Amino acid sequence: MVLRRECTARQLRLAVELRRLRDAAGLSAIEAAALLGVNRVQISHIESGLAGVSEERLRRLAAHYSCTDEAFIDALVAMATDRTRGWWEEYRGLLPTPFLDLAELEHHSTCRWDVEFLFIPGLLQTEDYARAAFASRVPELPCAELDLRVRHRMRRKVILEASVPYKAVIHEAALRIRVGSRATARAQLARLLALSETDHVSVRVIPFDLDGFGGTWSPMMLAGGRVPKLDTAVRDAPHGTGFIDSEVQLGVFRTVFRTVEGVSLDSSRSRDVIQRLAKEL
């Protein structure tokens, strides 16, 4: 069995789900190995993402673990057998791994949600806005890496071109903060308006004058999995990007998103706000 030198977030998620199934069945790694006729080390490698698992073995494990959720099992099989090497592989070794993991996650997503308070969501950014946002990073990025990050962010928009359902809830502050020049801000608002007119994109605004809004939540994003159990939330923090797969935490995220979506302006009034701000520039 050839072990991977580096695991992607998607491979690790499969490994985590298989470990959860075994734990739920109350079996040890040694007992699971015996069921497959392999040694405990092989189960350990599978459950750490260092080794893959065939469809036949995965389905046998699911049966031994008494998992009867066929849609979930089929989704795990798809994760285990997919050999896609997408456009993001061009950046391997050039950009931090989380950039690639996010692109792969989006490639396989069934929907995307974003909540932003200070910046326009990455999938909706113009090239000039993205460049200005990355250029403000401390410490300053070398020009070559700045260019790579901008190109990578622009390539991620392929999921919008593929009509993946997308929802963004953006605070008015993010619309008003000028990331870059006045011209950059004007072009960015125009881009938002254009995208908000498409059938599969929803852009909603949380206005400044909303009563009772504490604004204490931090930016969040969610990528829908093939089944809800395989949804993934993504949180950016100073120490790096975190991929969240705990069902409890995912439940919290879904609740928060529905809350902010519920207090935001509807799509029509949100476009009115964006148009008004664009005219003020």
Low-confidence residue ranges: none
Structural class by SSE content: alpha/beta
* Overall body shape: elongated
- Binned, the helix content reads 40-55%
Strand order of the largest sheet: 3-2-1-4-5-6
Mean pLDDT: 93
Proportion of residues in β-strands? 5-15%
Note the total helix count.
Answer: 13
Descriptive notes:
With 281 residues, the chain is of the alpha/beta class. The chain contains 13 helices and 6 strands. The protein has helices at residues 9-25, 29-36, 40-47, 55-64, 70-81, 97-107, 127-135, 143-155, 158-161, 172-176, 182-196, 247-263, 267-280, and strands at 112-116, 166-171, 201-206, 220-223, 232-237, 240-244. It has a 6-stranded mixed sheet, sandwiched between helices. Helix 1 (9-25) runs parallel beside helix 4 (55-64). The termini are far apart.
Break the fold down into its secondary structure elements and pairings.
Layout: H1 9-25, H2 29-36, H3 40-47, H4 55-64, H5 70-81, H6 97-107, E1 112-116, H7 127-135, H8 143-155, H9 158-161, E2 166-171, H10 172-176, H11 182-196, E3 201-206, E4 220-223, E5 232-237, E6 240-244, H12 247-263, H13 267-280
Parallel strand pairs: 1-2, 2-3
Antiparallel strand pairs: 1-4, 4-5, 5-6
Helix pairs in contact: 1-4, 2-3, 4-5, 7-8, 11-13
Question: Brief description of this entry?
Answer:
The chain is α/β, with parallel strands linked by helices and 281 residues long.
